[in-house]
Specification:
- It is a single chain.
- The protein is α/β, with parallel strands linked by helices and 218 residues long.
- The chain folds into two domains: 149 residues, Rossmann fold, CATH 3.40.50; 57 residues, Orthogonal Bundle (DNA polymerase, domain 1), CATH 1.10.150.
- 35% of the residues lie in helices and 20% in strands.
- The protein contains eight helices and eleven strands.
- The protein has a six-stranded parallel sheet, with helices on one face. Strands 1-11-10 form a three-stranded antiparallel sheet, with no helix packed on it.
- Strand 7, helix 8 and strand 8 form a beta-alpha-beta unit.
- Helix 3 crosses helix 4 and helix 4 runs parallel beside helix 6.
- The longest helix is centred in the first third of the chain and has 14 residues.
- The protein is globular and about 55 Å long.
- It starts with a strand and ends in a 5-residue tail after the last strand.
Length: 218
């Protein structure tokens, strides 16, 4: 069992709180086919990265803002199969009044829609794609979240599923737990969980929490 203390929790959304990986891949595949781009080029880089940065990389000739808006509409309208990951709602309840934020490469509009539609708590602090100049894997998103919470990045624990997001968290000086996968993306990852139900939360006298990460069942 792994035990970690933290004064704040920062969470990615897609693939971390919300099961949307298949949905995201379907949307990008449709967009690629509509624009004459081989889908495999985008599917290899899309997880955890802003649509803005993907379009700039694979299709710099397109009207950037128009296609960002189009992809947002596709994410909101193509919502079948998207749900909260098991145990995610309970974890957000268990952390209680602890400072926390969602840090996502989705737009604020898409993020708020997904969290509400999945029945998850909506944080007071939400860092979306439009809130930063540089998206993941740059450190800026997690540095901004820590600053807005008023917590030192080193006292923040990040939960992330994608290599780009984990790289962003570590670059910001945060500690990171990987959600999903058999092998850690980076050696500095504190641990790996396959389910939110592997985590138990205990409040500490100084307002921080201690999280115990149990091995996966079975």
């Amino acid at each position: 069992m792994i035990s970690i203390e933290a004064k704040a929790v920062l969470l990615d959304m897609d693939g971390t709180l919300v099961e949307s990986t298949h949905n995201v891949e379907l949307i990008w595949t449709q967009w690629c086919r509509d624009n004459g781009i081989p889908p495999e080029r985008v599917l290899a880089i899309c997880h955890g990265v802003r649509s803005r940065d993907i379009i700039r990389q694979v299709a710099p000739h397109l009207d950037l803002e128009r296609h960002i808006a189009l992809l947002d509409e596709l994410e909101i309208s193509h919502f079948a199969g998207v749900s909260a990951l098991p145990g995610a709602a309970g974890f957000l309840r268990d952390i209680g009044p602890l400072p926390w934020a969602v840090v996502t490469s989705a737009s604020r509009r898409v993020a708020l829609h997904k969290l509400a539609a999945c029945g998850l708590r909506v944080p007071a602090i939400l860092i979306g794609s439009q809130d930063v100049v540089l998206g993941k894997p740059d450190a800026e998103p997690y540095l901004l979240a820590a600053r807005r919470l008023g917590i030192d990045p080193g006292d923040c624990l990040v939960f992330e599923d994608a290599p780009a997001g984990i790289a962003s968290a570590l670059a910001a000086g945060c500690r990171a737990v990987q959600v999903g996968g058999e092998q850690a993306c980076y050696g500095a990852v504190e641990g790996i969980i396959q389910s939110w139900r592997q985590i138990s939360v205990a409040s500490l006298a100084d307002g921080a929490i201690r999280l115990a990460l149990s091995p996966p069942a079975g």
